[in-house]
Amino acid sequence: MNEFLSGKTAVITGASGGLGRAMAVALAGAGINLALVARNPEKLRATLDAVRAAYPDAAAETYEVDVTSESQVADLAGTVEARFGRAQILINSAGVNLRKPMIEFTLDEWRWVIESNLTSVFLMSRAFVPQMQGTGYGRIINLTSIMSHVSLPGRTAYSSSKAALLGFNRALALELAADGITVVGISPGPFATEINAAVLNNPEANAQFLTRLPVGRWGDPPEVGRLALYLCSQDAGFITGTDIVIDGGWLAS
Questions:
Q1: Rounded to whole angstroms, how far apart are CA atoms 153 and 161?
Q2: Tens of pLDDT along 75-107?
């Protein structure tokens, strides 16, 4: 338990995935109430089970929501407040990736990536910031990506959406600083999660990929969980308008 954070409420989108799940477990350990949000009910339930396995008394609920839907996000904000009171922590971890050459993208595919990775963050932030204002504390953590700093072929939509989040973070941080609300990005490098399964499950591709990483291994999702927990803490109140790269040295190489 963390005396400062215990009893606060966090909304985590993309909670059904590897990094979202890891952050949920980390925050539960500090006594934070959890509103776990995703579209896949079975995977959401697996996250809830993981939280309860680690912390049986954790206060957590699951919400099956499409975070690109304005109406569903608005309904979620009201539902979470009714259940837990004001949410003061928002972690936007929902995202998709479609790997293909730019000239092969359809407009619908492009919009799907941008709406899932960028528009959803706008909608969630707009819905939950009013719950944070006036409390003297708030945390918005947006999962960007190493692909917002560098890129690879076939990542035009993904890199565009994640690079845009860096600008969103800076602007929103300036808007909310006087309210005691920080806005920070986490830019993960390669982590052993489902989104990277194609490389992880291909021994040749995996071995080649690891040569890019000075530390010689994939990231472990709980490492992002612990970073998110720190950013929610009282000690991180001076960190805003930036992002933290956690990439095993990729950018430095």
A1: 15
A2: 999 999 999 999 999 999 999 999 999 999 999
pLDDT tens digits, 11-36: 999 999 899 999 999 999 999 999 99
Coil, helix or strand for 64?
strand
> What is the count of structural domains for the chain?
1
Q: How is residue 76 annotated by DSSP? A: H
Beta bridge partners of 176: none
The first and second tokens of residue 207, run together, are 């071995």
Residue 37: its H or E element = strand 33-38
What CATH number does the domain containing 56 carry? 3.40.50.720
For 126-177, how does the pLDDT look when each residue is reduced to its tens digit (9 = 90+)? 999 999 999 999 999 999 999 999 998 999 999 999 999 999 999 999 999 9
Q: Which entry of 55, 63, 137, 158 is annotated as an active-site residue?
A: 158
172 belongs to a structural domain: yes
CB distance 91 to 13 below 8 Å: yes
Does residue 213 sit within a domain?
no
Contact 232, 89 (CB under 8 A): yes
Q: Are 26 and 225 in contact (CB under 8 A)?
A: yes
* Residue at 86 is within a domain: yes
For the chain, state the CA radius of gyration.
Answer: 17
Strand partners, 191: 219
Our answer to whether residue 158 is catalytic in this structure is: yes
Top pLDDT among 202 and 44 is at 44
Residue 112 belongs to some domain of the structure: yes
With contact defined as beta carbons under 8 Å apart, do 122 and 172 qualify? no
Range of the domain at 178: 9-194+222-244
